[in-house]
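Need residues for this backbone.
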């Protein structure tokens, strides 16, 4: 009897020693899955949706980089929003642009005029598949945000101290913005040239529309056209690359635009400002889309967001502080004339080919829910503000 009892006791001890660590490991993995929003079970979904508006940072390709992968609570400007998930999208920032550094064959980009019918603008203006809400993004109030001298804001998603970056912002651009006769000073291009908008201002959208088109007058290229017109009218020489880099291959778009921009910079060394013009995509879990906008002169224009990159771990941006200083100079200039035009600038661990020049930035103009007239108006205003920074 004693021997049998001892044997049972030994088995129990062995079972506990194996089962308990295994359960702890499984629970840990479960918690990590829920926290990342990747648990698709009913319990996991409920846990994520009740996470007090806490969303993960944009997925980082380089976990070893300090400052990436943080979880940041939504704050400030979202106070008026009802509770509910945001479809894993932190609307303070841009959606994750797809960058493929290796493995994708880079196609020869096509002139926009040659692919006008490739992706027709097939948007049903009578469809009511989801709600569009116009929203003016204001300041954030978490510790990631800090305010520049003129009142605009930066969202710092890096390990740089906010005070250090603020001091850098006061220094202005560290390269000459002087126009050199007719030689181009500014390059406008579009890595995702097929990004498009609503044709008219509306409060609903067509779910079947891809929000992409090669019809130039309804795509992001037309926003670039307005930027260039304003620059030219204000005496600033500009080049506009209208090649379609994201068709037929979306994955290789950044490689394609990189090759083009590198060639243009070699051909025109006078270029100092290099702007990749995009539009954002903001959609809540409910399907509601947000159109960032502000009022100007009795009209509605789209808000913009300037993005400066600190490298993404795979590829570096050695002069990222130079880009950051120029981004602050541009945002502060805009703040003087149009205080509601800019969403907080994003300084983050991303790449977007910003190693090519000291003045390389990515600018999101509106979202897929803005009308083409709203973003075109913003393009004209943006061109005028860039011109004010230059020395003629």
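Answer:
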């Amino acid at each position: 009897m004693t021997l049998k009892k001892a044997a049972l006791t030994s088995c129990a001890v062995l079972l506990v020693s194996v089962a308990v660590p295994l359960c702890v490991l499984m629970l840990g993995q479960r918690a990590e899955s829920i926290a990342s929003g990747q648990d698709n079970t009913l319990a996991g979904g409920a846990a994520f949706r009740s996470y007090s508006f806490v969303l993960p940072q944009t997925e980082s390709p380089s976990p070893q980089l300090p400052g990436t992968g943080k979880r940041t609570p939504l704050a400030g400007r979202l106070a008026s929003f009802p509770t509910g998930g945001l479809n894993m999208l932190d609307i303070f920032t841009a959606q994750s642009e797809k960058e493929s550094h290796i493995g994708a064959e880079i196609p020869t980009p096509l002139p926009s005029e040659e692919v006008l019918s490739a992706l027709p603008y097939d948007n049903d203006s009578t469809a009511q598949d989801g709600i569009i809400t116009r929203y003016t993004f204001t300041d954030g109030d978490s510790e990631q945000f800090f305010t520049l001298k003129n009142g605009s804001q930066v969202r710092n998603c890096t390990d740089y101290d906010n005070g250090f970056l603020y001091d850098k912002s006061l220094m202005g651009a560290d390269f000459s913005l002087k126009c050199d006769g007719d030689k181009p000073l500014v390059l406008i291009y579009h890595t995702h040239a097929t990004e498009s908008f609503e044709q008219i201002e509306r409060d609903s959208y067509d779910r079947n529309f891809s929000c992409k088109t090669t019809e130039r007058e309804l795509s992001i290229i037309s926003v670039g056209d307005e930027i260039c017109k304003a620059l030219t009218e204000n005496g600033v020489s500009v080049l506009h690359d209208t090649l379609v880099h994201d068709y037929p291959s979306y994955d290789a778009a950044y490689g394609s635009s990189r090759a083009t921009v590198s060639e243009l910079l070699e051909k025109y060394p006078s270029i100092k400002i290099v702007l990749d013009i995009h539009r954002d995509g903001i959609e809540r879990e409910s399907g509601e889309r947000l159109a960032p906008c502000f009022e100007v002169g009795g009209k509605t224009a789209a808000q913009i967001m300037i993005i400066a990159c600190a490298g993404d771990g795979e590829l570096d941006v050695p002069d990222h502080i130079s880009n950051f200083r120029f981004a602050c100079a541009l945002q502060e200039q805009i703040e003087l004339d149009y205080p509601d035009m800019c969403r907080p600038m994003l300084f983050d661990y991303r790449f977007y080919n910003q190693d090519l020049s000291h003045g390389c930035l990515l600018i999101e103009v509106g979202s897929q829910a803005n009308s083409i007239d709203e973003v075109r108006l913003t393009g004209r205003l943006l061109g005028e503000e860039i011109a004010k920074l230059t020395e003629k």
